[in-house]
Design goal:
This protein is of the alpha+beta class and 186 residues long. The protein has one domain. The protein is built from 4 helices and 6 strands; from the N terminus they run H-H-H-H-E-E-E-E-E-E. Strands 2-1-3-6 form a 4-stranded mixed beta sheet, with helices on one face. Strand 4 and strand 5 form a beta hairpin. Helix 2 packs across helix 4. The protein is elongated, with a radius of gyration of 28 Å. The N and C termini lie far apart (106 Å).
Length: 186
Protein backbone atom coordinates (compact mmCIF):
# COMPACT_ATOMS: atom_id res chain seq x y z
CA UNK A 1 0.00 0.00 0.00
CA UNK A 2 1.57 3.20 -1.15
CA UNK A 3 1.02 6.84 -0.66
CA UNK A 4 -2.08 6.92 -2.83
CA UNK A 5 -3.74 4.20 -0.77
CA UNK A 6 -3.11 6.05 2.50
CA UNK A 7 -4.31 9.34 0.93
CA UNK A 8 -7.51 7.65 -0.14
CA UNK A 9 -8.03 6.34 3.38
CA UNK A 10 -7.30 9.76 4.86
CA UNK A 11 -9.71 11.45 2.44
CA UNK A 12 -12.38 8.85 3.17
CA UNK A 13 -11.88 9.35 6.91
CA UNK A 14 -12.08 13.15 6.57
CA UNK A 15 -15.25 12.82 4.48
CA UNK A 16 -16.75 10.60 7.20
CA UNK A 17 -15.81 13.09 9.94
CA UNK A 18 -17.33 16.02 8.00
CA UNK A 19 -20.54 14.11 7.16
CA UNK A 20 -23.34 15.43 9.39
CA UNK A 21 -26.23 13.28 8.15
CA UNK A 22 -26.42 11.04 11.24
CA UNK A 23 -25.81 13.71 13.88
CA UNK A 24 -29.48 14.04 14.80
CA UNK A 25 -29.84 10.32 15.43
CA UNK A 26 -26.73 10.25 17.58
CA UNK A 27 -27.82 13.32 19.58
CA UNK A 28 -31.27 11.81 20.11
CA UNK A 29 -29.72 8.55 21.29
CA UNK A 30 -27.55 10.41 23.79
CA UNK A 31 -30.21 12.84 25.07
CA UNK A 32 -33.44 10.87 24.57
CA UNK A 33 -33.15 8.53 27.53
CA UNK A 34 -32.37 11.21 30.14
CA UNK A 35 -35.04 13.51 28.67
CA UNK A 36 -37.81 10.90 28.77
CA UNK A 37 -36.71 9.77 32.24
CA UNK A 38 -37.06 13.33 33.53
CA UNK A 39 -40.47 13.68 31.85
CA UNK A 40 -41.64 10.40 33.41
CA UNK A 41 -40.37 11.53 36.84
CA UNK A 42 -42.24 14.83 36.51
CA UNK A 43 -45.42 13.02 35.50
CA UNK A 44 -45.22 10.57 38.41
CA UNK A 45 -44.53 13.35 40.91
CA UNK A 46 -47.47 15.32 39.54
CA UNK A 47 -49.79 12.33 39.73
CA UNK A 48 -48.82 11.56 43.33
CA UNK A 49 -49.35 15.15 44.46
CA UNK A 50 -52.65 15.28 42.56
CA UNK A 51 -53.82 12.04 44.20
CA UNK A 52 -52.81 13.33 47.66
CA UNK A 53 -54.79 16.52 47.07
CA UNK A 54 -57.84 14.56 45.90
CA UNK A 55 -57.70 12.36 49.03
CA UNK A 56 -57.34 15.41 51.27
CA UNK A 57 -60.26 17.16 49.60
CA UNK A 58 -62.48 14.07 49.88
CA UNK A 59 -61.70 13.72 53.59
CA UNK A 60 -62.37 17.41 54.14
CA UNK A 61 -65.74 17.26 52.37
CA UNK A 62 -66.85 14.06 54.10
CA UNK A 63 -65.71 15.29 57.53
CA UNK A 64 -68.24 18.08 57.20
CA UNK A 65 -70.99 15.43 57.33
CA UNK A 66 -69.74 14.44 60.79
CA UNK A 67 -69.01 17.95 62.01
CA UNK A 68 -72.56 19.13 61.23
CA UNK A 69 -74.26 15.96 62.56
CA UNK A 70 -75.60 14.84 59.18
CA UNK A 71 -73.77 11.50 59.35
CA UNK A 72 -75.02 10.83 62.89
CA UNK A 73 -78.66 11.70 62.11
CA UNK A 74 -78.56 9.51 58.98
CA UNK A 75 -77.20 6.59 61.04
CA UNK A 76 -73.95 6.28 59.09
CA UNK A 77 -71.80 3.20 59.57
CA UNK A 78 -68.24 2.88 58.27
CA UNK A 79 -69.46 1.56 54.89
CA UNK A 80 -71.67 4.63 54.44
CA UNK A 81 -68.85 6.95 55.40
CA UNK A 82 -66.49 5.12 53.02
CA UNK A 83 -68.98 5.81 50.21
CA UNK A 84 -69.02 9.49 51.22
CA UNK A 85 -65.24 9.67 50.96
CA UNK A 86 -65.12 7.63 47.76
CA UNK A 87 -67.65 9.89 46.06
CA UNK A 88 -64.94 12.58 46.12
CA UNK A 89 -62.11 10.36 44.85
CA UNK A 90 -63.23 10.35 41.19
CA UNK A 91 -62.39 6.64 40.76
CA UNK A 92 -58.71 7.49 41.09
CA UNK A 93 -58.39 5.14 44.09
CA UNK A 94 -59.48 1.60 44.90
CA UNK A 95 -62.08 2.55 47.53
CA UNK A 96 -61.84 -0.82 49.28
CA UNK A 97 -58.14 -0.15 49.92
CA UNK A 98 -58.70 3.23 51.62
CA UNK A 99 -58.27 2.78 55.37
CA UNK A 100 -60.56 4.98 57.47
CA UNK A 101 -60.63 5.72 61.17
CA UNK A 102 -63.01 8.17 62.85
CA UNK A 103 -62.40 8.57 66.59
CA UNK A 104 -63.64 10.76 69.42
CA UNK A 105 -60.96 12.22 71.69
CA UNK A 106 -61.32 14.27 74.87
CA UNK A 107 -59.28 17.34 73.88
CA UNK A 108 -57.43 18.58 70.82
CA UNK A 109 -54.15 18.17 72.66
CA UNK A 110 -54.87 14.46 73.27
CA UNK A 111 -54.35 13.53 69.63
CA UNK A 112 -51.11 11.66 69.02
CA UNK A 113 -50.49 10.63 65.43
CA UNK A 114 -49.14 7.17 64.85
CA UNK A 115 -48.04 5.16 61.85
CA UNK A 116 -50.91 3.45 60.03
CA UNK A 117 -48.55 0.77 58.67
CA UNK A 118 -45.98 -1.45 60.30
CA UNK A 119 -42.50 0.04 60.53
CA UNK A 120 -39.02 -1.39 60.86
CA UNK A 121 -38.65 -5.15 60.57
CA UNK A 122 -42.42 -5.66 60.31
CA UNK A 123 -42.51 -3.84 56.97
CA UNK A 124 -40.74 -5.83 54.26
CA UNK A 125 -40.60 -5.44 50.46
CA UNK A 126 -43.15 -8.26 50.22
CA UNK A 127 -45.70 -6.72 52.60
CA UNK A 128 -46.20 -3.77 54.88
CA UNK A 129 -49.10 -4.72 57.11
CA UNK A 130 -51.63 -2.13 58.20
CA UNK A 131 -51.54 -1.33 61.92
CA UNK A 132 -54.48 1.06 61.71
CA UNK A 133 -57.69 -0.45 63.01
CA UNK A 134 -60.55 0.94 61.00
CA UNK A 135 -63.44 2.34 62.95
CA UNK A 136 -66.27 4.82 62.84
CA UNK A 137 -67.16 6.71 66.01
CA UNK A 138 -68.39 10.15 64.89
CA UNK A 139 -69.42 11.32 68.36
CA UNK A 140 -72.16 13.74 69.30
CA UNK A 141 -72.46 17.52 69.44
CA UNK A 142 -69.46 19.44 70.83
CA UNK A 143 -67.16 16.39 70.93
CA UNK A 144 -63.67 16.53 69.41
CA UNK A 145 -63.28 14.12 66.50
CA UNK A 146 -60.33 13.01 64.40
CA UNK A 147 -60.99 11.68 60.88
CA UNK A 148 -58.10 9.82 59.24
CA UNK A 149 -57.87 8.20 55.79
CA UNK A 150 -54.84 6.45 54.31
CA UNK A 151 -54.05 4.85 50.97
CA UNK A 152 -51.01 3.05 49.59
CA UNK A 153 -50.41 4.57 46.14
CA UNK A 154 -48.42 2.36 43.72
CA UNK A 155 -45.30 3.98 42.29
CA UNK A 156 -43.93 3.20 38.85
CA UNK A 157 -40.42 4.64 38.69
CA UNK A 158 -37.64 3.29 40.83
CA UNK A 159 -34.56 5.20 39.75
CA UNK A 160 -31.41 5.92 41.73
CA UNK A 161 -31.77 9.40 43.18
CA UNK A 162 -35.47 9.58 42.35
CA UNK A 163 -37.84 7.32 44.16
CA UNK A 164 -41.29 8.44 45.26
CA UNK A 165 -42.02 5.33 47.30
CA UNK A 166 -41.86 5.72 51.05
CA UNK A 167 -42.72 2.12 51.98
CA UNK A 168 -40.48 -0.88 51.27
CA UNK A 169 -43.23 -2.63 49.28
CA UNK A 170 -42.93 -0.06 46.45
CA UNK A 171 -45.88 2.14 47.40
CA UNK A 172 -46.24 5.67 48.70
CA UNK A 173 -48.39 6.19 51.76
CA UNK A 174 -50.89 8.98 51.22
CA UNK A 175 -52.86 10.28 54.17
CA UNK A 176 -55.35 12.93 55.09
CA UNK A 177 -56.71 13.88 58.50
CA UNK A 178 -59.12 16.39 59.98
CA UNK A 179 -59.27 17.24 63.68
CA UNK A 180 -62.32 19.28 64.66
CA UNK A 181 -64.99 19.83 67.25
CA UNK A 182 -68.51 18.83 66.25
CA UNK A 183 -71.05 21.61 66.07
CA UNK A 184 -73.54 21.74 68.95
CA UNK A 185 -76.19 19.64 67.22
CA UNK A 186 -78.67 17.47 69.13
Amino acid sequence: MGRTGSRRKTRGLLRLVRDERGVTVIEFALLGLPFFTIVAAILETTLIFFAAQILDSAVNDSARLIRTGQAQSAGYEIADYRRAICSGLYRLFDCNAVKIKVTVIDRFSDYEPGSPVATGEDCTPEACEWTLEEGFAPGVGNQVVIVEAYYRWPTLLRLPGFNMQNLPDGTRLLGAARLFQNEPFT
